[in-house]
Fold this protein.
Amino acid sequence: MTSGVINLGSKGTVYRVSGPVVVATNVDAKINELVRVGNKGLFGEVIEIDHDKTIIQVYEDTSLLKPGDEVITTGMPLSVELGPGLLGSIYDGVQRPLPKLSEQMGEFIKRGAEVPGIDREKKWEFFPLKKKGNRINLGESIGYVNENEHTKHFIMSPPNIQGEIIDIVEQGKYTAEDILCRLDNGTVIKMYQRWPVKVPRPFKDKMIPNAPLVTGKRIMDVLFPLAKGGTAAIPGPFGSGKTVIQQQLAKWSDTKVVVYIGCGERGNEMIDVLTEFPKLVDPVTGSPLMDRTVLIANTSNMPVAAREASIYTGITIAEYYRDMGYDVALMADSTSRWAEAMREISSRLEEMPGEEGYPAYLSSRLSSFYERAGIVVTLGGKIGSVTIIGAVSPPGGDFSEPVVQNTLRITKTFWALDSNLSQKRHFPSINWLESYSLYYDSLKEWFESKISIDWDRTRTEAMKILQKEAELQEIVQLVGADALPSDQQFILDVARMLREIFLQQDSYHEVDEFHSLKRQFSLLNAIIRFSRLGNNAIKSGIEIDKLLKLESRAELSKVRYRKDFERKIGLINETMSKEFKALLGE
Amino acid sequence: MKEYKTITSVKGPLIFLERVKNIGYGEFVKITLSDGSIKRGQVLETSENKVVVQIFEGTRNIDKNAYVKFYGDVLKFPVSYDMLGRVFSGSGDPLDGGPKVVPEARLDINGLPINPYKRSPPQEFIQTGVSAIDGMNSLIRGQKLPIFSGSGLPHNELALQIARQATVLDCTESFVVIFVAMGITEEEAKYFISDFEKTGALERGIVFLNLASDPSIERIIVPRIALTTAEFFAFNYNMHVLVIMTDMTNYCEALREIGSAREEVPGRRGYPGYMYTDLASIYERAGKIEGKNGSVTQVPILTMPGDDITHPIPDLSGYITEGQIIVSRDLQRKGIYPPIDVLPSLSRLMSKGIGKGKTREDHKSVSDQLYAAYAEGKDLRGIVSIVGKESLSKSDKLFLDFADDFEKNYIAQKSNENREIQTTLDIGWRILSKLPEEKLLRVSDELIEKYIGSFRDAQNKAY
């Protein structure tokens, strides 16, 4: 958005300044148009036009801006630059690369910096896929560059450009500004394109999600799976582990590209992602995780209007990679900060507040953001997906507040975080009774055909046990566990195993932090098998104490940490068979 | 510089001027009253013909005849190395009878956001000598870790203990402690200062005092002045600075006061909608910068109104800070000092600063295990109050005893007791050794062997 040809348009004058909101007069601009304000040329966006007054939200600190200062229109809406070099980058909320900013002005972010989102100097090896005379449709690839070892970055015609090629360059090294291809109607295609962030990138058709997004987290994959192209919400009070879960998802999701938006979050957490991701290895490709990640960092002390923009910047980049036919996961941490930014600006505009001071358009903004997820047939005819996982930080952990409620109305997977669990160091602290996934039914078939035909049966049995436990706990609270009949005591014990062995997962343990679907299933299956065998044993009059002392039960509790998991779980199953045989034989 | 005598109205902490020209947003302002006294302020809103200014010293005695001088620049605070060992007022004037500080630099009190890319990850463990913090919720250099407390609880004692004892292992540099008081009573302030003087902490400390009787609007600038000073010491002199701010609740009240005087649309409980952003502009000034040796660590203290953690002040703080230490009234009633409730407390950066080579290899496991066991013990207390202790199983009884043991021997310590981290961890193992080994799921067999072995042997001998 920042460089290239900007048609400096008409000039207006600042009339009033109040925090990030600037009112100007005599500005000839459209709604959502980008303008430059004051002698530092601060970036702003027109958000309201009222008679002769134009209301602008400024993406940078407005200190010392004064009435009488100049406002210059640019003639274009807030846009991002899309091209090779996005992967591995770290941007602020309006796509200025943070490393470049620090080269220009040191450790602190000063105002008025102008750095393009896509490097203009860097040369990329371009491989053409089309010839002179070929027809190029909207969004079709004319060639590709290898953005890194594992990612072919397709150079597509922008969604509003098509025609017949009259000239295309040969294979070779080119910069982002070089013209790669000319069309008969006079338009040209470069390595990068601009797209206005608030307009969803078009596609041919949206499909029904049918494959799971594998996260490696047992409670998510087995109990509450998310589909590729789906939406998920993670609400939870502070300290319940939202950020850790988001980062874990960014690490382990089986997608080609991850866009991670730190929206109004902590600087120290962003640096954590920044230092850790280059060191971590992508389990699929074996290269650094950073190679598939685009980071957008707008920490809580950076300007509030840029925070509002960061979400749009992120989703537009995600859609761009989707259009190449890739699966993209977008993590937004946290959408509450985004909503609060809207609220802050709305209150500066003196708009009539809706619920809890949020603007009345909160719900429509949230839904139009989540609606940009989906698995689609792209204009170029490929299949790509954007999955959105939004963290929500409800005040006081109260799920009835407007941001959570409006989010839940749109998203289909709900991972409810519970601070009671996190206080017990039960991680991931997802509450299994409150969470749900509306994708499970359409994904069931996938799991049964790809992993195990017993998938659904086993999962249902586990869910039943957990639900039964919740009922029994109420009785235990009143009469104590010893008063229960032994079959019910055994249910409590199995539920405990499920919680401690299966649902808990250690994000800091090298083996446990990621389990493949096969591993997840065989672990769950072993616990459920223990439960079935145990139930039979109890029916035949075996005392429960004997079951609790079985070696296979003890071994199960630590198997998730084993590198030789597959071998070990096989051995445990054998031991289990032997032990139960021996018990019943007595 | 421009001077006007066009005040049209005075409302709460704000003055409104008309017939002014081209005043910048955020400009620094001095007001000369008819009696010659001077007040300072800052522009909150500016337009063609109207300007709103907040007055730090309060608007008392201001009338329509006062002269208002606009400086054309933001408020800059003079800083110097010589500030060490001094006591200042909330707007930075010396209170200790000493001379004015000769400035080395004048810095914008709002600071600038650190480029997240240039932050360096906090990872040095700070030993506070308090087990509940060191063992369970470690403080890390560059972290912002608030103490959430309630009125009448000993958070000030705890803060002082941290200020006195904080050191980094294997590191000879000591902390510069900057103490910021916002709206605390004179008595409390005296208590802090005398303790600082007694223990010699003042020599390596700077105190900024805004007392309960001082104008509330000054509270808006005290933390900013203090943090500007902190950044100066951290990034110009490469020193490690620990900033203790008490009480953030008073800061937020001042924010609300301004909001209501401006007739803004209020957010939750009347606090302004931008309170999150505003608090972030304070808390986010903690951290470390790549290529610089210094650091700013913050321990803000806030009293939760009605002990309610969902109140907007603790709630918004908790979303910005890297964890929280919770001081509990229940433990205080039991006579336990420091009454830190470790279960809802949290240090988000803990795992980065502990473990082999930093504290000890077993640190994470043993603290996880203590957490889990204490949580279980506390759950059982609830059950016992309904069904009585008799109906508990043998192992449940052990957990119940563990919870008491943990509170009395691990959490509790004297206010002058400086526990080494090794001692803290050993106490942890000692009380864990009374639980059945098969219930210790969070610690590996090797660690059990290595650290519990000795206690088991000793116990066996005793029988």
Notes: Residues 150 and 304 of chain B are 5 Å apart (CA to CA). Chain B is about 35% helix and 20% strand. The mean pLDDT of chain B is 90. Chain B touches chain A through 87 residues (CB under 8 Å).
